[in-house]
């Protein structure tokens, strides 16, 4: 059997297993190991399993070992732990409180503050799911107490939570950088302006929605004095310092992204202990949560790396590039196809799973068109961000509903999200048409 054919059959098998709800790590890992075994067993033309067994194990273990021992991958547990520690230390709550006090008199001000709080949390944690979960506990009950329409109260947090995908540090950018061998520091910087534009877009949605239907967001009667607003605003200095450490340190060339993560985690831990909000005994449970999340991500990535070895072994990526050359597909049609593929996959799979499943096949085709991998990474992460709030399986929506203990129906949350999805498509189009938005900061990096 032709090696490329084995690759195509393996991809079809993965898609079938995912369709019947097999976890993505087992699907891609199991299929990859089986296909590699088949390739080596038939290498001489006759079936010789005894020759393929140890070769398959060696290739599978070496591929996953190299990934797990990657220096860049150490950023993931550091940033995930930082998110947990920052929440326990009250840093993320202070971001939301400051935004709420300063913006509460605006139309839909508390919803806008929730989006700003999600942006601030994203600049610390790097995880969209963690952002939606944490800010859902803080923001949504407050809006419900103020008689906000449940659709606005939930949709603004679900959409705002997706900012964790773009605003650095982002776990998705780390995984993308490792699989494409791109600079993670440049990816972090490339995601900053698109993340800010997305946040402004969500704010615009809230303002226009409330202007059209004022009853969905009553303005609070309380007027906060300027002095109190200044005090609350100054309490955000830890969050500002953490953000400057990550972005300013990377942009100025003072730290690598991994060093920035370690320094930020150490600072947040010391601050939490000094404030009395974190006891030494609290650190173990927080690290246990970090290990559980990190372990799941690492296992998916390790299985994906074995799948990458299969693709290299069968020459599948070269076959796909050859098909593109023969079909003479234009670059814009290719980008449109990429967008459609990721939008459809985003309806059913989690972002990490989509990324590790598609990147090994997608990147050789991207390189064949001469597209910039940093810019393409921003486009991919934006597409994955959209998938987090796209029905029927928008992860942020289900996480938020779980946090609220089903006090708001999932259907009602989705009904408030279509406006945010609309602005996401607009922002995506802008990022595709104007690559300079994504590339300005990384290209000016020292």
TrEMBL record:
Main location (coarse class): membrane
Entry's Gene Ontology molecular function annotations: transmembrane transporter activity
Keyword Ion transport included in the entry's annotation: no
Domain (TRAP C4-dicarboxylate transport system permease DctM subunit): residue spans on this chain: 13-437
Family matches, as InterPro entries: DctM (IPR010656), TRAP_DctM (IPR004681)
Record keywords: Cell inner membrane, Cell membrane, Membrane, Transmembrane, Transmembrane helix, Transport
Pfam families: DctM
Residue stretches spanning the membrane: 12-40, 110-131, 152-179, 185-210, 231-254, 260-278, 290-317, 329-349, 361-380, 416-441
Function: Part of the tripartite ATP-independent periplasmic (TRAP) transport system.
Family, as annotated: Belongs to the TRAP transporter large permease family.
The protein's assembly and partners: The complex comprises the extracytoplasmic solute receptor protein and the two transmembrane proteins.
Protein name from the UniProt record: TRAP transporter large permease protein
Species per Swiss-Prot/TrEMBL record: Pseudooceanicola atlanticus
